């Protein structure tokens, strides 16, 4: 029986080291693995230090190396396919030799399945994700509210049920959303137009901060939100998940269920069906109800996939429908009404609870169809082709139907916008060549926008085409990695009619985008990233052609047809630390310089209409400078305890007006304390250990506001206390199909605004009229099978 | 296998729905705007005079143009208020009747200063509360003043100050001269 002889030589040496590591932690352990008898080197043998989690694979001469070890006792294991697993205790002091004798377990090796995972590429950009337990604990809320738990992300709200993410001060058409790999093409231009995505579809939600246009296309000046469903089922069989969520405030109920399966045999088709129902009524502030703030949502999706050795294909379809009530008192007729409403600051009576949804209201539908095929071309790399079609319809019902509405049209919205978008993406990811990996691609988009009612914006057709090329240089284990990318886009807009008015104008925009990134892996647990991104955005049709009183905001907005594209140049420095045991931290410092930043500039004279006077704003361009930092950390300071913190600070300056920019998030801090009675560490990978968490959220008053732009000063600072608890269990002795390690039922209880504080948030467009919602107790039950 | 047939059926159904949901190229109904407020002052036992505020191009563009109201001193008048859309030449829409039909949801408010006093509402809505399409005023001595007329939608008519509730559909101001 052949034996493998592993010889490990260890040598301690002094190396320059970084201050955060422990005392005497600059040892290097290296050695070679050879076969006994022949003394031939053994490549691809795995050597692993249990205590530190460090692993190494021997090279073609059988060598391996570990750097920056602390002095002490270690368990080192050595393993090679077909050999027994052997471990040895070793005291790393001075020079130490160690030899493993690995024995073949069996000569009759049958089939071996290797589950390999590549070493994760460190992203060059600052990014944060919500997955697992953290995502489960916030599901049932809108996508915006769910993202708000990440540092640097706030929301722009219209009441309690419409929220859209603000990434480092930028939102709406400056934030790009990727829903299941498809660029979301909805009605993101409006600040009261929430993303048309069912959060229950997501298994992972990632925010990529900063200008980032090379891969995803124009517009991503502030960042990208990536919503990813879970991968199609790999094992043959059936499985699924059911979610029940209830919120006390607004008496909201949400049910979401998913079933998936994969067939056995020659045609390994996999499929998934998912659906969500949501119904909520009037929300309540600590002192009164907010009339007409209920919601209704029906969403579902279906997917079919087929994975073969050389290629895979997937077809996905989803529909999203929602009705959202808007607080009645927020739809005002003119400036006098607005002033009266601000003076009053709340509804005249306390009201009572109702599920009734009436005017004003939004009714939104979004359909997505996607077909994707990927082909592994062997030596050349992988090709992906994706086609998607989206249809979006947005109806807005005013508080008051228009005069002269025919009786047959009473149930119709006053404004109706529709967008149909076709996108085609082609990407080729080449194989590693001289330490370069990268991809080349092309994207095309054709879009038709129609405004069937309301005449706020004109009908238009848009076409976009772009090509990109990104390369990354990585020579593992060399500690520096580089990335560079470039993209070129052309965008054409053919603007037709607004109502009965003929505009007939063609607009063309073309621009380059670029990215340069660098990661310096200072140590296994610590890396430093420097990233520059340049992105652009063509003006939106509302910025070009608006001409009228803006719905609900009591201001007259006028577009400008000669607006140029915006250009962002964004530099970010990020330090990520994670020792994989008991603490992690991320610090990100950024500066985003935006040339020709499009904003609403207040005008001297109000506009007089038959409804009275309205303050007047015109779209204009300036140069903006956004500087800030985001911080988050988690520390297991004792066996069952974890303290976490996050902070976001931003300074946003309008350089031409020499003043602050309006509607920018105020500084905020979060502090949390988690107690996990059963877990050794609260960082339980499965996220199933019971836990209790108390959190404090402090939002400061926004004192940096421009003059003569807003109707009322920014509201006061506020502090909220939140509570969260979660656990997993099984009922009876039934084994879950997922595996015995994962209990099938997961329960989460959260209480937001535990102290029922009355407060207003600067970034809520309805802050003039109402307070924010009061205490909200929610219960979430998830069953996996 | 059954499940997959079901999945396919759903997808096929979707494909049908999907195409059906394409843009319906309906007429561009923009709704109607009030462009004109017409006041008819009728001398009790005498003739009548009309005064208007017009903003024919809608919001923005040219501002509304108001006639100056000229009234006789020490005379009793009844006032009729009308709301019209005159944006299309030769095609006038009258919304007064619509206000009358939904009288419970509407209120015409008057604010006066200077030589004219606020008109007294003479008509009632379906609940016996004031409406304001018809009102009366008696002028005093000569002088000048200002008369503001607002049309409120969904006011709280039980509120002690109903004119400071609801939202405003019309808010126009006339200069008044009493000769």
Architecture overview:
The complex is a heterodimer of chains A (785) and B (179). Chain A has 785 residues and is mainly beta. In chain A, the strands form 7 sheets. Chain A has a 22-stranded antiparallel barrel. With 179 residues, chain B is mainly β. In chain B, the strands form 2 sheets. In chain B, strands 1, 2, 3, 5, 6, 8 and 9 form a 7-stranded antiparallel sheet that branches. A 4-stranded mixed sheet of chain B has the order 4-11-10-7, with no helix packed on it. In chain B, a hairpin with a 4-residue loop joins strand 1 (36-43) and strand 2 (48-54). Chain B starts with a helix and ends with a strand. Chains A and B meet through strand 18, strand 22, helix 3, strand 23 and strand 24 of A and helix 1, strand 10 and strand 11 of B.
Q: Summed up, what is this model?
A:
The complex is a heterodimer of chains A (785) and B (179). Chain A is mainly β. Chain A contains 4 helices and 44 strands.
Q: Provide the CATH superfamily of the largest domain in chain A.
A: TonB-dependent receptor, beta-barrel domain
Mean model confidence by pLDDT of chain A: 85
Radius of gyration of chain A: 29 Å
Number of DSSP-assigned strands of chain A: 44
The low-confidence runs of chain A, each spanning 5 or more residues with pLDDT under 50, are: 1-23, 104-110, 681-686, 734-741
Structural class of chain A: mainly beta
Defining key terms:
heterodimer, A: mainly beta, Ferric Hydroxamate Uptake Protein, Chain A, domain 1, 3 domains, 5-stranded mixed β-sheet, 3% helix, disordered N terminus, B: 179 residues, mainly beta, Immunoglobulin-like, 7-stranded antiparallel β-sheet
Detail the topology: elements first, then pairings.
The complex is a heterodimer of chains A (785) and B (179).
Chain A (H helix, E strand, L loop, with lengths): L2 E9 L15 E9 L10 E4 L4 E4 L5 E7 L2 E8 L6 E7 L3 E8 L23 E5 H5 L6 H5 L5 E6 L3 E6 L7 E5 L2 E2 L20 E6 L13 E6 L8 E11 L4 E11 L6 E12 L2 E2 L4 E2 L4 E13 L3 E15 L9 H10 L16 E16 L4 E17 L17 E19 L2 E18 L6 E15 L5 E19 L2 E23 L2 E12 L3 H5 L1 E4 L4 E4 L7 E13 L4 E20 L4 E3 L2 E3 L1 E23 L2 E14 L4 E2 L7 E8 L15 E9 L18 E12 L15 E8 L23 E9 L1
Parallel strand pairs in A: 12-15, 32-37
Antiparallel strand pairs in A: 1-2, 1-8, 2-5, 3-4, 3-6, 6-7, 9-14, 10-11, 12-13, 14-15, 16-17, 16-44, 17-18, 18-21, 19-20, 21-22, 22-23, 23-24, 24-25, 25-26, 26-27, 27-28, 28-29, 29-30, 30-33, 31-32, 33-34, 34-37, 35-36, 37-38, 38-39, 38-40, 40-41, 41-42, 42-43, 43-44
Chain B lengths: L1 H19 L15 E8 L4 E7 L10 E2 L2 E3 L4 E13 L2 E4 L1 H6 L4 E9 L5 E2 L12 E5 L4 E11 L13 E12 L1
Parallel strand pairs in B: 4-11
Antiparallel strand pairs in B: 1-2, 1-5, 2-3, 5-6, 5-9, 7-10, 8-9, 10-11
